[in-house]
Specification:
The protein is of the alpha+beta class and 129 residues long. The protein contains five helices and four strands, in the order E-E-E-E-H-H-H-H-H. It has one domain. A hairpin with a 5-residue loop joins strand 2 and strand 3. Helix 2 packs across helix 4 and helix 2 crosses helix 5. It binds zinc ion. The site of zinc ion (ZN) has 4 residues, from helix 2 and helix 4. The site of zinc ion has 4 residues, from helix 2 and helix 4.
Length: 129
């Protein structure tokens, strides 16, 4: 099932394939596809999606990707921003100078939520219109 979440300046569509597409009001688009490289698998284990790489499935990688996009959007919303400066920068090919700070916060949020048993997509669903 394809779901679309709207938060302020962004609409986020999550497709059954695992693709997430953020579209900003100004037309900027960011596509996020679950990574399946060695570094993506290592990140999934370090964030807590599986105990080790041998247990990791495509669904874990999809969940990591979706949670990550949700984290960017929820953090921006909670901070009172109209949009994620990092994702918006990516959509315009103009990287926000502090993107690494938002990236670290998004990764930390998703690891925290996972450890605490909090479903970030459910939070996004409740928060978004
Ligand atoms: Zn990110």
């Amino acid at each position: 099932m394809t779901e679309t979440f709207r938060l302020a300046d962004a609409a986020v569509t999550m497709e059954p394939s695992g693709l997430s597409v953020t579209t900003f009001r100004d037309g900027g688009v960011v596509k996020a596809w679950p990574g399946d490289r060695q570094e993506d698998r290592a990140r999934a284990v370090s964030l807590g999606y599986a105990q080790d790489v041998s247990q990791l499935t495509w669904q874990h990688l999809v969940a990591m990707s979706r949670d990550h996009e949700a984290s960017h959007h929820l953090l921006a919303h909670w901070l009172g921003l109209d949009r994620s400066p990092t994702l918006h920068g990516v959509s315009r090919n103009r990287y926000w100078p502090h993107w690494h700070r938002e990236e670290a916060a998004a990764l930390a949020l998703q690891a925290f939520a996972l450890a605490a048993g909090v479903d970030l997509l459910a939070i996004l669903r409740r928060t978004a219109g």
